[in-house]
Amino acid sequence: MKRITAVERAVEPADASNFVGSATLQRVLGRTDGESVRLYRVDFREGGRTNWHAHNDVQLLFGLSGRCVVVDRDGMELVLEPGDLVVIEAEVEHWHGAAPGGAGEHLAINLGGHTEWLESSSDGAAL
Question: pTM of the full predicted structure?
Answer without folding.
Answer: 0.91
